[in-house]
Specification:
Length: about 180
């Protein structure tokens, strides 16, 4: 049985999981990552200029791109890399390769790993994106925490959509709109 990530997550999600018809929360989290039907990764080579890399991220509205060398994953370039490493730095985006500012050798998972492994790795590592590799170890996709949440909510959409706006809040002022 898959253990819950922590007691707080269990407290929030257990009532929703009880509403699922015959599917346990544990069963959902044990599903392999490939069940999320992620879009194929957009790959850039290490020598791709930052201007082109950032342009791809903007045009496709991606939070992360995988960087490859000879077809193998060598890094990941994320919005966080832009904020933490590029903002305020005076460089030539057109001539600086993405390899200068990417995160090298990122943690990754196989598409056969359970969803709960990805969520745990993201929580523990503080990641919002994690590279997913196929059986051959080649980059397949990028998994975001948003993908994980959407996957879980897909099993309990009626329960989630029918929740009151603030189910655990008490109104400070009983009258008024």
């Amino acid at each position: 049985m898959v253990e819950y990530l922590d007691d707080e997550l269990k407290e929030y999600l257990e009532p929703v999981a009880k509403g699922l018809s015959g599917i346990s929360f544990s069963d959902i989290l044990s599903r392999p990552i490939r069940d999320l039907n992620l879009i194929p990764a957009t790959l850039v080579s290490e020598d791709t200029p930052l201007s082109e890399t950032i342009g791809i991220m903007q045009n496709k509205q991606y939070g992360a791109l995988l960087v490859v060398s000879e077809g193998n994953l060598s890094g990941i370039f994320t919005e966080r890399d832009i904020l933490n490493r590029l903002v305020g730095v005076s460089i030539e985006l057109e001539s600086t390769p993405v390899s200068s500012y990417m995160t090298r050798n990122p943690e990754s998972l196989m598409d056969t790993d359970p969803v709960v492994y990805a969520m745990n790795k993201m929580v523990v590592g503080g990641y919002r994106h994690i590279p997913i590799l196929n059986d051959s170890g080649k980059p397949r996709s990028v998994l975001s925490i948003r993908d994980c949440i959407a996957f879980i909510c897909g099993f309990c959409d009626q329960e989630v959509f029918n929740l009151p706006i603030s189910p655990n809040r008490r109104h400070q002022n009983p009258d008024g709109a």
